[in-house]
Amino acid sequence: MRVTPASIDDLLAGLQAAGYHADRRLATAAFLALRLQRPLLLEGEPGVGKTELAKSLAQVLGRELLRLQCYDGLEHRDALYEWNYAAQLLHMRAVEGRESVDEIEREVYQPRYLIRRPLLQALQAPAPGAVLLVDEVDRADEPFEAFLLEYLGEYQVSIPEIGTVRAVVPPVTILTSNRTRDLHDAVKRRCLYHWLDYPDRERELAIVRSRVPGLADSLARQVADFVSRLRSQPFADAFQRVPGIAESVEWARALVALDTLALDPEVVTGTAGILFKQREDVAALTHERATELLRPEPA
User: Fold this and answer.
1) What does UniProt give as the signal peptide span (predicted)?
2) Per-residue DSSP letters for 256-290?
3) For residues 49 and 20, is the Cβ–Cβ distance under 8 A?
4) d(Cα 57, Cα 60) in Å, to the nearest integer?
5) How do beta strands 81-83 and 40-43 pair?
6) Are residues 219 and 178 in the same domain?
7) Assigned domain for 1 exists
8) pLDDT per position as a tens digit, 93-152
9) What does pTM read for this prediction?
10) 223 in the same domain as 141
């Protein structure tokens, strides 16, 4: 059984060994979430590594990763539990006429008839506990946020037929948001907060190197330089959404697959659909703009 890292440096080293290159501010936020047993809310642009942090923390801590992917219309039963109605019905038919209505009701609302969803699984996970990822919570609606408050504040949930279920081991809980809408203050108050920005050039270079086997060092540097410049002004204004880390890594993999030795405007424009996911952004990466992005910066 693995234990909570003893220091921020230990956590940084553990995350790096798991392939996640965090900066010290992010590692501090994650370390405090572990020590204080508080949920951690990560906000930031898509593709900056929010989801990957939860995956890497699960690896570092030796805990099971449970993922709740949020979406518009997400209901409590999809997140917490629902009853196995088919099994309950079979039981009622089997004992019909032999037991009273009250006895049947008590029997069918037993834990063995529960279908556990991620929130309940996280609360009932045995030691060392679980890492629960509530991914893209901003895609769910406000009533679902209200439903989360009991879990986030007390690591417990109420099931009407059974009662209150409290955590066996407090789960490490990571919420992510792309800020498609603002979350309610009540959710934010129950969490530690961290804004996860795009990485600096050196951290992105380390990430690309670790994630793309066979990538030549010179090409890795070119990828990191190009994406870093693309996200900076005045270039970023030309695009609706600049690439995240996920796109940088995927682009590097594509370049290796194409046996690319060095970046040039033709390669860049030919693979623009990996860096960008919107037609307007692909069109905005013209040959002339690619040439300007590849031009060495003045000393």
Assistant:
1) none
2) HHTT--S--HHHHHHTHHHH--SHHHHHHS-HHHH
3) yes
4) 5
5) unpaired
6) no
7) no
8) 767 666 666 666 666 667 777 888 999 999 999 999 999 999 999 999 999 999 999 999
9) 0.87
10) no
Residue with tokens 């970023």: 236
Q: Which residues contact 61 (CB under 8 A, 6 or more apart)?
A: 2, 4, 34, 128, 131, 172
Is residue 291 within 8 A of residue 265, CB to CB? The reply is: yes
Name every residue whose Cβ is closer than 8 Å to that of residue 44 and which is 6 or more positions away in sequence: 50, 178, 179, 195, 196, 197
For 64, phi then psi, to 5°, come to -70, 140
Task: Tell me the one-letter amino acid at 16.
Answer: Q
Q: Please name the amino acid found at residue 98.
A: R
Residues 107 and 129 in one domain: no
Residue 111 is part of which domain span? Answer: 81-116
Tokens of 206: 């380390």
Q: Nearest Cα to 268, choosing from 241, 229, 232, 234?
A: 229
Sheet of 192-195: strand order equals 64-69, 130-135, 172-177, 40-43, 192-195
